[in-house]
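Fig. S4 source data, part A: sequence.
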Amino acid sequence: PSSPSSYAPQPGPSSFPFSIRSLEVVLPSHNALSLPVSRFAKKAGLRVHVPEEPFKSWNLGGGGREAEEAVDVAVVASFGRLIPRHLIEQCSLGAINMHPSLLPMYAGAAPIHHQMVHLEHATGISLIEVHPDRFDAGRILLQRSLPVGPLEPYAEVRRRLAAGGAEAVAEAMARLS
């Protein structure tokens, strides 16, 4: 894995050395329409999928996807569901998860809350391979650390981790291309 390094989001638009032919959003069925990513996807005109439960019976090829429109990589963040092996295997480059902690510390649900309760002075972002049978157990691909102020509000830490996570995902995508 990469060693953790400091990260400060850069203002303004980013330019990446790769192109994305298609971007689609898959949301878990619980709270799907109330999630901020759902509202963003609708505004941006992105194709949104909300698979029926049980999720394990869903396929990426659904919804009229043509065979030549194979999925290269899946990226998940706060998805709250295990991604079945058959879905990971449908992605030629696999699946990665953006986790808002420096794994293995604070693996699992509510990592930001747990870090704040423990008065951590730093947090971070981990990009890991998605493991089909366990949460937050895949190989660490990239990590970035982020200092946390002693009185910094949860919403600000969450916002900075989200921005840093987006940049880390973009960096990982550039490495894949």
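Fig. S4 source data, part B ends here. The longest helix spans residues 154-176.
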